[in-house]
Write a structure and sequence with these properties.
By secondary structure, this protein is mainly alpha-helical. The chain has helices at residues 2-18, 30-36, 39-67, 73-97, 103-139; strands spanning 142-144, 163-165. It has one domain (2-20, 29-148). 69% of the residues lie in helices and 4% in strands. Helix 1 (2-18) packs antiparallel against helix 3. The radius of gyration is 20 Å and the shape is elongated. Mean pLDDT is 83; it is low at 162-167.
């Protein structure tokens, strides 16, 4: 997750640095500035939205695993993805496009991004399920986050603990 954040921030920095390079005599740099000037805003909003959405997704998925005693993976995965990606899509679209699009257009952008993400989640839930089964059998471990703090900022104050049970 953090590698993706760093890559997005680096991309924004490179693009914005490239905008400062003088343009050739026959061309003006204004179109480049117009197109790329909001890269910082997009990068910032996507990093914050991804963090928010992924933390929410992890919290819901982990809580549902404990509640359903590790059963119903398909349902747990789809429910957590539905809520996490909704938060991600709405936040990112709202912050990224609030200065350039009308509210109705922002809703369309957020809904389209959300629909695509849910479609991918539904398509990939079965392969992910089989990958989880393989990893559990290979490692002979299944983790239930009963005593684990799911606070994303908890690393600042104490170490994580988790309770594991063997298969």
């Amino acid at each position: 997750m953090f590698l993706g954040f760093m890559a997005e921030a680096l991309f924004a920095l490179i693009v914005c640095s490239a905008m400062t390079i003088p343009a050739r005599q026959i061309a003006t740099s204004d179109p480049y500035v117009l197109v790329f000037s909001s890269v910082y805003l997009f990068a910032f909003s996507n990093i914050i939205a991804s963090f928010l959405g992924k933390c929410l997704n992890i919290y819901i998925l982990s809580s549902l695993k404990v509640k359903y005693f590790g059963r119903h993976f398909y349902m747990r995965s789809i429910v957590s993805t539905t809520i996490g990606e909704l938060a991600l899509s709405v936040f990112a679209a709202t912050v990224s496009f609030s200065s350039t699009l009308a509210f109705s257009q922002i809703i369309k952008v957020a809904f389209t991004a959300y629909a695509v993400k849910l479609l991918v989640a539904v398509i990939l839930v079965k392969p992910v399920f089989h990958a989880c089964i393989y990893i559990k059998k290979t490692d002979r471990m299944d983790v239930y986050d009963k005593k684990t703090s799911l606070n994303p900022f908890d690393f600042l104050s104490k170490s994580y603990t988790s309770q594991t049970s063997s298969n």
